[in-house]
Amino acid sequence: MAKMPILFISHGGPNIVIDESPARDYLETLGERLPTPKAIVIVSAHFETDGVAVVTDPAPEMIYDFGGFAPELYEMKYAAPGEPELAERVFGLLRDAGLGPSRIEKRGYDHGTWTPLKLAFPAATIPVVQVSIDPNRDAAWHHALGQALSPLRDEGVLLIGSGHITHNLRALFPIMRGGKTADPELVEQVNSFTGWFAQRLAENDREAILDWKARAPYPAENHPTDEHLMPIFFAYGAAGEHPRVERAHASKQLGFFAYDSYLFH
């Protein structure tokens, strides 16, 4: 069996499921572009714990972790099953790597999980296991999570990091609500940051990538808090020592809110 690729997805708001956008179009093509996975292990920026946790729930329900969106979004279901046996395998790999995982017996799908999966795998027949981030840990720690779970690629399991390449909601919401356009300085800050990541990933400059807060341009302007970037380090860690990195999608909302997504081969 060939190794499965790994995904980093900028998942957008829950309305990505119903609103036309280039990011939505990209997510809808993923199921056709990838080998059909036996199962999915997903790390969502919206699943935060102290340390790393693995969900063993055989039938996760829904978490509508958002407010003020279209009513139909609160009625949507993503009925993919969990897979406790795979969850135990994930737990064991993390434990053996010295990462001290815990188990969570019941947890639904947050929108960082169900919205991209609903677009990419709408049949909801592929089992899904959820793994958390720890917003108080750094890039290197999340990279180690990916390294620990990398063997699953050889077992037909698709590993996904679901976050956002930029996530400055403090800038986004006033522009959205006011019908304004982003000022050129903000656009330049986003372009510099996303371009830096694209170049460093293409060069496999691991030292710089894991030291992003000190080396990337405008880190605080793009990520006032770190949690939405942590899934990219998980994906990068799972890709091994010499990954082939594809910037598979790059679009912007309102000219500045970036939706870059990556495939690691």
UniProtKB/TrEMBL annotation:
Keywords carried by this UniProt record: Dioxygenase, Metal-binding, Oxidoreductase, Zinc
Domain Extradiol ring-cleavage dioxygenase class III enzyme subunit B, chain residue ranges per copy: 22-245
GO MF annotation list: ferrous iron binding; oxidoreductase activity, acting on single donors with incorporation of molecular oxygen, incorporation of two atoms of oxygen; zinc ion binding
Cofactor(s) required, per the database record: Zn(2+)
UniProt record similarity statement: Belongs to the DODA-type extradiol aromatic ring-opening dioxygenase family.
Name this protein carries in UniProt: Dioxygenase
Organism: Neoaquamicrobium microcysteis
